Design the sequence.
């Protein structure tokens, strides 16, 4: 069995990047035909995956070739494969059996918070996913429900396989400032990330808040600095209105930080009973959740460690391999 996997997304430092890297690293290498495309970053793809076939084609052009006109079978570039596992950006035509992974459906649920070009590209891609993919992996039950609601014809092809803690964080040792008293969040400019209400909740509590991420005071930081801020926090707060799979929650579990998060989308199935859930539309509920998380720190940290153990890239890869085998 030869499985072609598009690893183009691995170079961007996103949750999807973590998924691609960790999944591929845990699959039987002898069965993989890895490929990726980038106009300027082919070397970065090769650094991550030395055996990958790389092509100097920008994503925007592949969107036109594969999503819009849907020409140039992938086998033309990578040779014959039995299965094609496509990325979250393009859906090429192929003679092979096809599957893809859906991480979230934010471009369809929150199109006003996504650039029109990205929404259009995802819309073009999903047309072919719905029409051609033999299996569709969703990373949470919530994402599967969203897919079923938006694209009902996919019902019989959906498989739920969770992600796990990205390996890049496991090797990092936090450098913690002692006696620091703050709550920590990872933010972005999109309203669905709900950072404004979080700021109001912390102001109500008189609680210092540190946010990293797009549009925050600190902006993007290195993995080491992110871990330093996270591990030193009194609590990690994840107030988002919508997430496909909240990987930062697993990071907080790993670094033994109590979690308070919104009770929406995929969060409840990720945290189980290991976090304080709050109504993300209520500043008072959020403030109470933060207070409880700090108060119940020891209990939540212990529960978080148990919950984290339920997620494993080995298990993710094994289940994904099972999907591959089911298509042959």
Sequence:
């Amino acid at each position: 069995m030869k499985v072609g996997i598009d690893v183009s997304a691995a170079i961007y430092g996103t949750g999807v990047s973590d998924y691609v890297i960790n999944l591929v690293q845990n699959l039987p290498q002898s069965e993989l035909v890895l490929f990726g495309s980038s106009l300027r970053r082919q070397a970065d793809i090769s650094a991550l995956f030395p055996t990958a076939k790389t092509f100097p084609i920008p994503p925007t052009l592949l969107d036109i070739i594969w999503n819009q006109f849907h020409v140039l079978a992938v086998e033309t570039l990578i040779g014959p494969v039995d299965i094609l596992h496509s990325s979250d950006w393009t859906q090429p035509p192929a003679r092979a059996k096809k599957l893809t992974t859906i991480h979230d459906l934010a471009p369809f649920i929150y199109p006003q918070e996504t650039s029109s070009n990205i929404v259009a590209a995802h819309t073009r891609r999903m047309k072919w996913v719905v029409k051609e993919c033999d299996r569709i992996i969703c990373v949470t039950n919530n994402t599967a429900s969203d897919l079923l609601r938006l694209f009902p014809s996919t019902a019989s092809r959906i498989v739920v396989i969770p992600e796990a803690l990205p390996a890049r964080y496991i090797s990092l040792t936090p450098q913690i400032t002692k006696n620091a008293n703050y709550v920590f969040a990872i933010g972005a400019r999109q309203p669905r990330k709900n950072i404004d209400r979080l700021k109001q909740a912390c102001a109500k509590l008189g609680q210092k808040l540190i946010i990293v991420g797009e549009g925050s005071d600190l902006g993007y930081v290195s993995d080491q600095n992110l871990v330093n801020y996270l591990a030193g926090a009194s609590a990690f707060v994840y107030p988002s209105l919508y997430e496909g799979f909240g990987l930062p929650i697993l990071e907080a579990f790993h670094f033994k930080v109590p979690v308070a998060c919104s009770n929406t989308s995929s969060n409840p199935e990720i945290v189980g009973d290991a976090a304080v859930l709050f109504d993300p539309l209520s500043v008072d509920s959020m403030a109470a959740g933060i207070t409880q998380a700090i108060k119940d720190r020891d209990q939540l940290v212990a529960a978080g460690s148990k919950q984290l153990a339920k997620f494993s890239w080995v298990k993710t890869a094994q289940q994904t391999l099972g999907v591959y085998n089911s298509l042959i």
Observations:
- The chain has a mean pLDDT of 96.
- DSSP finds 15 helices and twelve strands in the chain.
- The chain has two domains: 3-164+312-327, 167-308.
